């Protein structure tokens, strides 16, 4: 796999962080095939905003195939990768994250996920014969993610005891739903072993969408922030999926579910490859706390806004900014 050179590292200023702590043992694990999982799921969203799901029904072969195709792409020469188009926002990105100066030890592919096959997106390179296997793997993976995100959101509705069952899932299953898929590659950085710190691969942030589903290889690096502000390291598990509550879901539940702040630290010796599906609502969807979840006399913590309005604001901020602060009452 191609490793970005030390010279490249010296030419950019990347934030550093303390070396990862021991693995955090308190990550909730939700067995989706187990009765009562909806109750555990709601508790995890309230207490941490983050959990792991097992028995999810997604074939390991499908996950491994997309990872393999991602590794092949990121192993190409730099000039070949850049043929995918500069991420603006979709396409290939390298070190630069967003439009406000955030950087990280990461390269990535970002795809617009619609109801159409991936080959019909604006990324022309997916239509080339050389990208046929990647395009096929992406289409199958996105289809599987849509089903999984629908199942998880409907279990949330059950656990919250609100009807209809698809009150949340319909927001991400609509033909106009604004969902994206991100493939991240964090190259190894061997000379970090000499330093008493870690390089930031992806800086601390929350996800603006409703829900995020992450799967990675068996390399560590993902950290989440607990309620007391401390950072803990998530044990890697390439067979399972990790799920984040997003900012939009925090709004819909009037703060009952909390959007989790997270980051990724680069590994000194091993590459980390991750795939993240972000489930977002349609552009014109108006977001506000669901009346069914509001207690008698309870006041909304947020003013109503559209997803388009929030997305435009969020993508114009720095990663670590409190994006919801602008929309609080």
TrEMBL record:
GO terms of molecular function: gibberellin 2-beta-dioxygenase activity; metal ion binding
UniProt KW Iron keyword: yes
E.C. number: 1.14.11.13
UniProt keywords, alphabetically: Dioxygenase, Iron, Metal-binding, Oxidoreductase
Cofactor(s) listed in the protein's UniProt record: L-ascorbate
Pfam families: 2OG-FeII_Oxy, DIOX_N
Residue span(s) of domain Fe2OG dioxygenase: 176-281
Reactions accelerated catalytically: gibberellin A1 + 2-oxoglutarate + O2 = gibberellin A8 + succinate + CO2
SUPFAM superfamilies for this protein: Clavaminate synthase-like
Family designation: Belongs to the iron/ascorbate-dependent oxidoreductase family. GA2OX subfamily.
Annotated protein name in UniProt: gibberellin 2beta-dioxygenase
Organism: Cocos nucifera
